[in-house]
Amino acid sequence: MIKIGVDGRLLQGKLTGVGKYVLNLLNYICDNTESIIFSIYTNKPLECSLRADKITVYQDNARMGKIKPMVWSKLLSFRLINQDKPDIFFAGDAFVPLFIKAQKIVSVVHDLNAIIAPETMSRLRLVTDKLFFEKDIKKASVIITNSYGTADKLKQYHHIDTTLVVHPIMDKPYKVIEDGLVQEKLKSLNINYPYLLTVSTQEPRKNMDKTIKAFINLKVREQLKPYKLLLVGSKGWKAEHIQSMIQSYPGEVMSLGYVSDELMPYLYNGAKLFVFPSSYEGFGMPAREAMLCGTNVVVTDIPELREATFEKGAYINPENSKEFEDCIVHVIESGNIINQNTLNNTDQLSLLIGTLESLG
């Protein structure tokens, strides 16, 4: 039996995209092999559902729970890890705790934000990246990236090769749902109008302001007369401008904030169009979720989002407002129906378990 230790910091609280990536990867491994078990180390309680038969959680004492998770993980988690003695340590976002004795490390790289979009990061995270990111990745026996685009940028900026590309494993509810069930769920949410949808944290690189501007321009020209724009996602860095724009268009632009995972598939299914003009993504999970729910997408023309949308989206330069607006209208009017049978993964997930077993 191979024991893999996991940084539980990523599984604390409401899961981010990185947290969902790690959780779904653990579940996939648990479902597909009997030779691997997991130990998760954390300084705070975990709210997510875990496979109790194959996953053991080790939580540090209450005093440690007051320490920032990143600080605890990097400087203090080694005590739990070394006491448990895992065969392999799984660094779910590339960072490896100091002083651990595990000789075999699997590292996951999700993006190169510290280089490409540093303005989106907290000061602590940016400093941590600058100090440890490259050093920690070079400790790894196996390096996983979430996209071929991330693999290319890891090679470009750090001259480090990727072992495996493993796309995010999507939650099973992200699928086409019968329209009657969708409308019933939307009605319970008081959504009884056609809408465009965007899902992202409110921060500069997501270009939510450009989405709002494009939508309002089209409304003024009466090209989207019956539609509203629904925004899902929490406030991020420098969100004041976005908040001001939302407040300027009450009844037209609706900010829903955080929406539960249970409701998101219905929102995707019910949307006439999903819009995601982010300037940079390591993958772009919301765009893939929308595609799997049968909703057409308009996204930025970058390699990572082409990959996330199976090369079957509509691609734009968000800096070109006319192109952006014209594309929205064209996709809505085209009435294109996505053939789910053509949405085939191109990653190397099938090689993952064998790779881990060879390390153990």
From TrEMBL:
Any one biological process term the GO annotation gives: lipopolysaccharide biosynthetic process
Protein origin, superkingdom: Bacteria
Keyword annotations from UniProtKB, A to Z: Transferase
Sequence intervals crossing the membrane: none
Phylogenetic classification of the source organism: Bacteria, Pseudomonadati, Bacteroidota, Sphingobacteriia, Sphingobacteriales
Name this polypeptide is given: Glycosyltransferase family 4 protein
Short name of any one Pfam family annotated for the protein: Glycos_transf_1
Native species: Mucilaginibacter robiniae
Domain Glycosyl transferase family: 190-335
Keyword Transferase assigned: yes
GO molecular function, one term: glycosyltransferase activity
